[in-house]
Amino acid sequence: MFRAWRDRGFDLVPVNPNTTEIEGIQAFASARDIAPPVDAALILTPPVASEKAVDDCLAAKIAHLWLYRRSPAAEIACAKNVTTLITGECPLMYLQNMSWPHRLHRWLHARS
């Protein structure tokens, strides 16, 4: 997922408390450590970890969140605090020049 977004020119700021670097890019232990601050985050954690990740993003005043895997507790926290929330959507289907399964998913999603 990281590589797909990076290879398409997106400016990524990885957050992972278990490492200091991801594919040559500095990783931060917390969203609150990012400088300058960001205004959007794509959360790719398992649902059980999403609430903690959302709380970290809210503490960092990140207004736009995308939860890749749905989490009721994280969604409730977002509803109380976040301007924009996307849930349960595969981010890869929105990128250009993806493989056919992602393009098919995007096509099917557009017709539902």
Descriptive overview:
The structure is a single chain. This protein has 112 residues and is α/β, with parallel strands linked by helices. It has a single domain (2-110), classed as Rossmann fold, CATH 3.40.50. The protein is built from four helices and five strands; from the N terminus they run H-E-E-E-H-E-H-E-H. The chain has helices at 2-7, 47-59, 72-81, 100-110; strands at 21-22, 25-26, 40-43, 64-67, 84-87. It has a three-stranded parallel β-sheet, with helices on one face. Strand 4 (64-67), helix 3 and strand 5 form a beta-alpha-beta unit. Helix 2 runs parallel beside helix 3. It starts with a helix and ends with a helix.
Strand content: 5-15%
Q: Kindly state the mean pLDDT as a whole number?
A: 91
**Can you count the beta strands?**
5
CATH C-level category: Alpha Beta
Shape, please? globular
C-alpha-based Rg, rounded: 14 Å
CATH H level, superfamily name: NAD(P)-binding Rossmann-like Domain
Total discrete domains: 1
Order of secondary-structure elements: HEEEHEHEH
Q: Point out poorly predicted stretches.
A: none
Short description:
This protein is an alpha/beta fold and 112 residues long. Helices cover 36% and strands 14% of the residues.
